[in-house]
Hints:
Layout: H1 2-6, H2 16-33, E1 41-42, E2 45-46, H3 51-64, E3 68-72, H4 78-90, E4 94-99, E5 111-115, H5 118-122, H6 126-129, E6 134-138, H7 144-154, E7 163-166, H8 184-193, E8 200-202, E9 215-219
Parallel strand pairs: 3-4, 3-6, 4-5, 6-7
Antiparallel strand pairs: 1-2, 7-9, 8-9
Helix pairs in contact: 3-4, 7-8
Bound molecules: S-adenosylmethionine.
Amino acid sequence: MKGVIHQKPPTMMRSRMDISHLIHDFHSAYYWHRFGVETMPWMGVPMQKWPGDVMLYQQILHESRPDVLVETGSCYGGSALFYAHMMDLIGHGRVISMDIRKLKRPEHPRITYLKGDSVKLGATLADELQGKKVMVSLDSDHAAPHVLAELQLFAPMVTKGQYLVVEDTNLNGRPVWPGFGPGPYEALQEFKDGLGTTGFRDMELGGVHLFSYHTWLKKVAA
Ligand SMILES: C[S@@+](CC[C@H](N)C(=O)[O-])C[C@H]1O[C@@H](n2cnc3c(N)ncnc32)[C@H](O)[C@@H]1O
């Protein structure tokens, strides 16, 4: 029985090229199929996340145990509530989530919501984050100029061993929404060209995470 379980089926031994086409097509098809906030609630609250990325958030929260997770773009608060619940399980951490819109959102003792433009609000956090282990998730306005402004402001807040997640780097044809225009991916490239992500390393995504909607950067040097 043991030998059977560990034997690779013949199709899996074939070229990985076949798989990359499948991943691309599945990503595109799934993206448009699930579009809309109703499709992925967390505890009844709309959350705009691909299920695999939710598992990645769980994984890195467990691994890096941030004192504070700063989220830009709360929307209905589903993602903030998810992070807070993971922190309940870990027994550590709080969430600062900001959004330009005032919407009804779930309350939780670990969550602080801030209302306003993320770039303006971010500039006020320095004192509060002093000496803390800080993780950042950028998920607000996805137009490149805004994401670049967020990167310039929030990336330096991320502390060694923590993660910077730039959400939706799959936009503008990578592979979804080809006509979106310059978005998070382009902003990140511009930021990297200016050596903005020195000290960060791309998280290697493999196994069940062969595609992700986002770019996951780990801060490896101060
Ligand atoms: C993609 S949604 C966030 C989704 C949420 N993180 C989740 O996973 O459920 C983007 C949110 O960013 C907010 N937003 C847009 N521009 C913003 C800005 N300049 N500053 C802060 N929030 C902004 C929008 O109001 C919207 O609720």
